[in-house]
Amino acid sequence: MIREFKTILCPTDFSDASYHALEYALRFVKQSKGTLIVPHILHDTMSPEFRPAGHTLPFEEVTKMAQAKLQEVWQEKLESYPNCKFPVEIGEPFSEILTIQKESKADLVITSTHGKGGLTHILLGSVAEKLIRHATCPVFIVRQGVD
């Protein structure tokens, strides 16, 4: 019997690669008429997300901005699929995504990989690789540019 994925977790960092993963997530969730959880994790206070005008914004303001951007994603990328949740968390992406996966009892994680290699990958590892090792459900990895 093929497993049905009723709760799917697909984090986004608002990159093209993560939007590509969302395309897959939408296809999967529509088949099961399940719930799609699309979190965004705030983690780098030096990123342009936190410093749009050259000065650092408070977490509360950046959280509101991320929520607004997630609403745009819902309308533009997810065809306003009715059963979506959009948490915004603050912390290290891997651990926050893993916490959301466990708390929501997600049946499947769909995530993108940016294909970073070399020293960056050796020192930091990838969020996708860590999810494969630690998630309590299957993890579907989508490479950018692969259909």
From the structure above, extract its key features:
Rossmann fold, alpha/beta, 5 helices, 17% strand, two-stranded parallel sheet, 147 residues
Strand order of the largest sheet: 4-2-1-6-7
Q: Count of helical segments?
A: 5
Name of the CATH first level = Alpha Beta
Note the main sheet.
5 strands, parallel
Give helix and strand order, one letter per element, not per position.
EHEEHEEHEHHE
The total number of structural domains is 1
- Return the CATH topology: Rossmann fold
What is the mean pLDDT? 86
List how many beta strands DSSP finds: 7
Q: Determine the fraction of residues in helical runs and give it as a percent range.
A: 40-55%
Radius of gyration: 15 Å
- Give the low-pLDDT segments: 119-124
Task: Assess the beta-strand content as a share of residues.
Answer: 15-25%
Per CATH, which architecture? 3-Layer(aba) Sandwich
Return the structural class: alpha/beta
Overall geometry comes to globular
Cα(first) to Cα(last) distance is: 26 Å
CATH superfamily: HUPs
Describe this structure in words.
The protein has helices at 16-32, 59-76, 93-104, 118-124, 127-134, and strands spanning 7-9, 35-37, 40-42, 84-85, 88-90, 108-113, 139-143. The protein has a five-stranded parallel beta sheet, with helices on both faces. Strands 3-5 form a two-stranded parallel sheet. The chain is 42% helix and 17% strand. It is globular and about 50 Å long. It has one domain (17-143): 3-Layer(aba) Sandwich (Rossmann fold). The two termini are 26 Å apart. It is built from five helices and seven strands, in the order E-H-E-E-H-E-E-H-E-H-H-E. Helix 3 packs parallel to helix 5 (127-134). By secondary structure, the protein is α/β, with parallel strands linked by helices.
